[in-house]
Design a protein that fits this description.
Number of helices: 8
Structural class: alpha+beta
Order of helices and strands: HHHHEEHEEHEEHEHE
Helix content: 40-55%
Radius of gyration: 18 Å
Length: about 240
């Protein structure tokens, strides 16, 4: 198995275990998707993907419809995606993806978390190069051979296809998202969920005490409503 498999096994989608947090983040994704491409999912592939993800976390349909309607209101603030970079203690690189309607607030909050946890904010590009920006799709495993599917999807950009307890996962570079989404839809394959992740190219093993230091910063970042994802170069069990 490749790096995407090991990365997925280590993370196990920990952040999405808090249902209220997942709903908040999907609500923001809906606003950004509608502002970008309109409220019709048939004509807006990004919105289509977000709706699929809402089903994956059991978000009620009425919540989704309400969020789409709210996003069409011109008075509804749009969210800007902002990337923050820095270092946690013990030389662990940290990449923080945010979606914010108030950049000054978000910058101040993220900086304070790094400072309080003995980390340091970095400049743009200081650690981003240490991560591969990928897209992923999850489809049902019923009657599908992952190895055969991988061979068939290589021409569309797929780099890694594997099965876990929840279905088949397809990983590809960030820029292949639209191509693979269209191909899966053309094949009539149900997309259970999809998204983007940043996989560290190299990870660093820490002691138990050092892990606790890094996790203190990660938890503070992940508790912030503006933070969508936190990635790091710490080796995970």
């Amino acid at each position: 198995m490749g790096r995407a498999f090991e990365f997925r096994k280590g993370r196990k989608m920990k952040r999405w275990s808090a249902m209220a947090k997942a709903f908040t983040r999907i609500g923001k994704d809906i606003v950004m998707a509608v502002k970008e491409g309109g409220p019709n999912p048939d004509a807006n592939s990004r919105l289509r993907a977000v709706i699929q993800n809402s089903k994956a976390v059991n978000m009620p349909k009425e919540n989704v419809e309400r969020a789409i309607k709210k996003a069409t209101d011109k008075d509804t603030a749009n969210y800007k995606e902002v990337l923050f970079e820095g270092y946690a203690p013990h030389g662990i690189a940290i990449l923080v993806e945010t979606a914010t309607d108030n950049n000054n607030r978000t910058v101040a909050n993220v900086r304070s978390y790094f400072n309080k946890c003995n980390g340091a904010m970095g400049t743009q590009g200081s650690v981003e190069f240490m991560f591969d920006h990928t897209c992923n799709f999850r489809i049902p495993a019923d009657g599908i051979d992952p190895e055969e599917l991988e061979l068939e999807l290589i021409d569309f950009g797929a780099e890694e296809v594997f099965e876990d307890e929840d279905g088949i996962l397809i990983y590809a570079p960030f820029g292949s998202f639209g191509t693979i989404q269209k191909e899966l839809e053309n094949r009539g394959l149900e997309i259970l969920s999809s998204g983007f992740e940043r996989i560290p190219q190299i990870t660093k093993k820490l002691s138990e005490a050092e892990v606790a230091d890094v996790e203190k910063l990660i938890e503070k970042l992940e508790d912030d409503d503006d933070v969508m994802n936190v990635y790091h170069t710490m080796e995970e069990e």
